[in-house]
Amino acid sequence: xxxxxxxxxxxxxxxxxxxxxxxxxxxxxxxxxxxxxxxxxxxxxxxxxxxxxxxxxxxxxxxxxxxxxxxxxxxxxxxxxxxxxxxxxxxxxxxxxxxxxxxxxxxxxxxxxxxxxxxxxxxxxxxxxxxxxxxxxxxxxxxxxxxxxxxxxxxxxxxxxxxxxxxxxxxxxxxxxxxxxxxxxxxxxxxxxxxxxxxxxxxxxxxxxxxxxxxxxxxxxxxxxxxxxxxxxxxxxxxxxxxxxxxxxxxxxxxxxxxxxxxxxxxxxxxxxxxxxxxxxxxxxxxxxxxxxxxxxxxxxxxxxxxxxxxxxxxxxxxxxxxxxxxxxxxxxxxxxxxxxxxxxxxxxxxxxxxxxxxxxxxxxxxxxxxxxxxxxxxxxxxxxxxxxxxxxxxxxxxxxxxxxxxxxxxxxxxxxxxxxxxxxxxxxxxxxxxxxxxxxxxxxxxxxxxxxxxxxxxxxxxxxxxxxxxxxxxxxxxxxxxxxxxxxxxxxxxxxxxxxxxxxxxxxxxxxxxx
Length: 516
Description:
This protein is of the alpha+beta class. Helix content is 16%, strand content 35%. The strands form eight sheets. A seven-stranded mixed beta sheet has the order 7-8-6-3-17-15-16. The longest helix is centred in the first third of the chain and has 13 residues.
C-alpha cells in the first residue's frame, strides 16, 4: 500500500477536476461536499480464473490474465473512485497498479485517491484521503458463503432454521465491523462498507416481495443486514431504489461455473454508508441486458454483479496518526510514512527499535502543516520489529509496528513439535508473511512422506494479516468438522496468501501418532 505527499495529492485532485478542498486564511484546510462513487465487486477467484470464451474455469490456475484486464474495464466503465474487492486473492494492489490507483491487499480496497492504513484499524478499514487533510473510512468484507440461507428456504427450511443458520454462520463475521464502524461515524468521519455479504437483505424479503416472488416463501429479517442497519449503516441501493418489488437489483448471479441448477437469485452485494454522507444514486454493474443493470459490460468477467453508489460526503479531518506505507520493509530501502499531526513545533516521526531507542527520525513540516509524508532510511539497521512513532511535545501520540528483514529473507512457517498425538493442537509460527487480509495457514497431508503441491488443504486458520505471529490449529479451527482429529500420518503446514491456493512457505514435516 502506498501513500503520497499532500502536494502530490493536490496535483492529482486538480487533474481529476476536484474543487472540494481549499486553504483558509490561516493556512488550515477546509472541506466542502465531495461526490464519491463507491463500488463493491466480487471478482471470482482473483479475477483470472474464469475463461471468458467458455464461461468456465480456466484450464490452469491463474491462467486467464485477459479476464483480469476485463475486471479492470468493469471498474473503469463504472467510473468508480473507491472499490472494495472480494475474492481478490493477492490481486488488489495488482489491479490498482494497472489502473494507476492506490491499493491495499490488507483491506482489499483500492482507490484513485491515496490510502492510509491507520494504527489500530488492524486491517478492518482504511482511510481514503479524498482531499488534502480530509478522509473517509472504507471497510470491505466477505462473509462465509456456505451453507447459503436462500437455498435452505428453497429446500423447505423453516424460518427458525434459516435465522439460526444466519446467526451461527454469517452474523459473527460482521461483529467487528459493528463494533468499530459506528464509532468512526459518530466522530464525524464518513464511513463506507462494501462487501459480498452472502445474505439477502431484510429490506428485500418483505411481505410485499413474498407475495410476488415464489422463492421468497416468507418474509425474513435477515440477521446480517438487520444488525448493520441497527448499527446505523444505510443500504445505499435501497435508498436510491426503495421498492424491492419494482427494482430487485439482483447481484447473484449473472452465471458462472459454480452456479446452482436451481438457482435462487438475490441482492447480496451491497454498499453501505454511515456518518456525514447522502446517497445520490446507485446502479447495478453487470452483463448487457441483465435485470436492473445500470452499467453494462460485455463480456462480463465474474459471477457476481457489482454495485456502484454515488454519495455526497463531507470528508473529515482524521485523528492524529502515523502510517507507514508498508508493514514489512527490506533493510536498506526507504520507509515512507504518512502522518496527521497537531502541527506544533518540534514534532517528529521516528523509528524506534525493540528497546524504544530512536533508530531513525525525521521532523514533520516546519511550516505548521499538519499533514505530510516523511521518508526514512533503513540502511544498516538490524532485523526485527520496530515501531513508527509520531511525537509532539516530548510525548508519543501515535505508533504502529513495522518489521525489517534482510534482502532475500524468505517467508517462513514452522510448527512447535516434530510429533503430535492424535487430537493434540498444533502450534504454528510464521515470519515475513505478506500480511494480506486473508493470509492463512493450513495442514496438508503427506501420504507415504510425500507432500504433493496438489494435495487438499485440511484444517486451517487465518493469520489476521500479521507479518509475524503464532496460532493454534486444532478442534476449533476452520475445517475441523471434517478433518479433526487428524488421523495418524505425516503432514506439513503451509502459509498461503490472501485466500489463494499457492503457498509461499512450508514447515518441516511432522508426524501425528495414535493416542497412547
